Amino acid sequence: MLRSKLIAFSCFCAIALSFIAQADSTDDVFWRYWQQQMSAKKLTGDFLQEKHISVLSKPLISKGSFKVTNDKIDWVITAPVAKHFVFDQNGVIDQSKSVSQTDAMGNNQALKQFSAIFRPLFTGNKEQLQQFFSISVKKLNEHKWVLDLRPKDALLRKGLDNVELIINQLVEVIHVTETNGDKTLIKLLNVQTHTYQDRKSG
Amino acid sequence: MRLRFWGWLFSLFIVCTLLVIKLQQEGVIETNIMALLPETEQQPEINNLASEFISKNNSRAVFLFGNKDKKIAIKAAEEFTHKLRQSKLWKNTVLRHDRAQQQAFYHFYYPYRYQRLTASQQQALKSRTLVDWEQAIQQQLLNPTQMVSSRLLQSDPLLLFNKQLQHLSPATSTQLSLVDDLLMVEAKGVYYVLISSEVTFDVFNLRLQHQAVVSIERWVKHLQEKYVSTEAIYSGVLFHAEAGARNAQSDISFISIISIIGIIILTRVIFRSLQPVGFCLLTIGVGVLVAFTLTSYLFDKVHWLTLVFGASLIGISVDYTFHYFTARQAEAVNFSSKRVIQQITPAIGLGMLSSIIGYIPMMAAPFPGIVQIGFFSASGLLAAFLTVILFLPYLCEQPSSNTGFLNQQFLLSLHQYHLHCASKKSLWGILILCLMGALALFINLPVNDDIRLLQQLSPERQWHDQQLKALTGQNAISQFYIVTAETEEALLEKQEKLLIELAPLIKKGALAHARSVVQWVPSKRQQMSNLKLLNLKMPTEQLRLLLDKLGFTADAKQKALAAYQSQLKISSPEKGTEVSSLLTIHHWFSSSVSQYMSNLWLGKYTQGYAAVVQLTDVNDLAALRHLTDKDSDIFFISKADDITTVLSRYRQLIVKLAFMAYLFIYIFLGWRYGWFKALFIMLPPLTAALTAIALVGTLVQPINLFNILAFILIMGIGIDYTLFLQEDKKRRLSTYIAILLSAGTTVLAFGLLSLSSTNAVQTFGFTVLIGILLAFLWAPCSLRKNTRSCLNDSDVKQNDMKQQTKRFSV
ipTM for the complex? Predict the structure, then answer.
């Protein structure tokens, strides 16, 4: 009797472990896949942003282009206003002002943190993302994945509910939901990848 | 006579007892360079306020722990913080800045968003049209970095608070970021974690500062062994004070030891015995002991700089002992210690008196440091003199077992040669030429009285400061304003006015930044003015139009307008009623949000209220000082520059006092020797001192107050030489050897100061070294008459006996 219980328990453990291993491997497969997509590449493309603020009757729509190189993002808004932001390790620079926004503000810690959160959404830096978010990965099909990012930090959690990334080979949609119901949808269009070699030869 | 011996011994016993009592007191040795200052000519209250602020700032220290692995850097910082918190020497240690504290900023200041408009917001209100406002708000809404929520938009539709919030963070540096509640900075792949703390004691307390720094170094070493490749950077006045004290102590030990070794060797060579060394040490010991005790009682604390100069006192006080021993050494038969003392007393007494007269201007200077040095030297010399004349005749009654001098013939020849050269016109010619040259150079000598020359900053500590500045942008505060007013409100208003005046200077680069409490708590007048400006430029109707343009829903618009209206009502209170919705300094202080900047508010003092406007990276002192001309309640404080100015003034003053002192000495010598002879006695040391200063000032480095001190010492010692020669009518070899020994020991003692790491002390050493050598060389010139022969002491006796026999035979 005891023997049969032990065998049954062992089988259960083996099955459970195989599921856990499979779960881990799903994550690993995704990160390997994304890293492979992003490694030694720069991204360029356009974006369309819809900001749904509950006190405004209409969403705020803006569009522009972006460029991701290494750990730096150029975010150029072309309409309805012209703005050019650069996100890098030092924070955020408002190029359209031709003065660092950091300098203009006198204190950049919030901007630095924002930049640190914003950049890995595009670059797929797992470590950086994990620093701020708990991540769950869901596979939709062979090239399509959904990442659900939930903020770890209590202060961030107060304002931000979650960030959803839809990845179709590369990031396709960023969906930010705030705790007060406001939502921001960023669609990345015409995204192209370039290797650095292309750039050099170009 | 024996009674005098016991009397002096009893006096020394009292001095020793007093010293023991004094040493029970903490911090008898002063290491604070500021203590060299006289009471500045500002109001004492302002001085106290400035000292209070400086003292608070001095107690602060900042530590950075860095590692390529962020987790290791955090671990090291956490362990170090734990050590600091366990130590009684440290308080208010901050590593983590909790989120509740950050939220407190938001909750505290948000209700005052309309009262606390920034300068750019005031400007925007004055100049923007409705369309401008619409675009500006839209830009903020589209800015990916601005997380504008609907709640915020409804309660702050002009989005004023976001801008204001950026100035309110605990991270005062632009390079630091708040990550996981820690202030961090990343450079070249290394993550640094910042810890701030304060010492619980006066940073200039020698014992505690040493204890604190040693434990910090031990903890850092332990952490660096535990976590390989961990960097530790720490900065604060404590570390500079400790390095300065350590440096001064090693200077004192080194100079004293080498000086004593030199004296021992010289004495051994001349006397073939070490017995005089013991008595030299006794004389020196008594001199320093009495000087230290009296100075510590008179001034409460003895400055380390006084001790550096005091160590040099060794060189002078042995002269008196040497005079006794050279005279004793020369007497082969019928030695009488009392007779020898009587023989040398006029010479050493005159020397001692002229030296003390030379120190009088130092003691009269309104500068505690100089007075202390003058008093220390004078009292030490007097004590040493008394020891020689009261102790030596009893402690050393027996004649020397090795009479005569080693290489006596050589010394006699040297003596003869020196006197011969002095009698020639050529040496006089050189002396006159040097005097003229020195006077010519003296008129245009470069001067530099910068107090920083007195405190040689340790290169290691400078490296730490530079690293900290590069990583965090934080810099030591050296200049600030103290603003005073009768009421708190007036004080805030004055600071606001001052900040407005500083703004163009910041643009010009006269300074990098100014920080004041009014940047957190504006005056009531300013708050009311802001509300009135909003009422005038953005009345409710105008805002309604703007919200329509932005596309607010009807419900949101109603709520936003109602909230706005209620806030703006404060701007027109009923007459005689106090506006309770304004931010007050008391409310600010009652909240924890004030903790980062509360040190800038000095609060109530005897004549009203005071606050500090802190300045960073000041480049144009004159422009900043000029701002105080307009308001007598604003004081510009720049201690180091104030001290430099004072040093400069006192250098000029002491030069005048010194020349006055030499006039006294000249009168004193003129009374004894006649005016013409007195001139010849004074001319060689005067030329030596002037030449030394001119050479050092032209070739080594610009002169400062300490070169003038050297001048006084050269004059004092140099006059001794000419006096001793003058007093010895028989040109005894023993007198010459005493001078030779004196010059040798003085050069050893003072010349060694040129090895000091403190610039001012070093130039002092150089000046005395050159001056004493020249004073010795030119001393026989004072004899004027052509001295063809000189005698050793036995010859003198034989001559005396021959003369007596002749008289008898006649």
Answer: 0.75
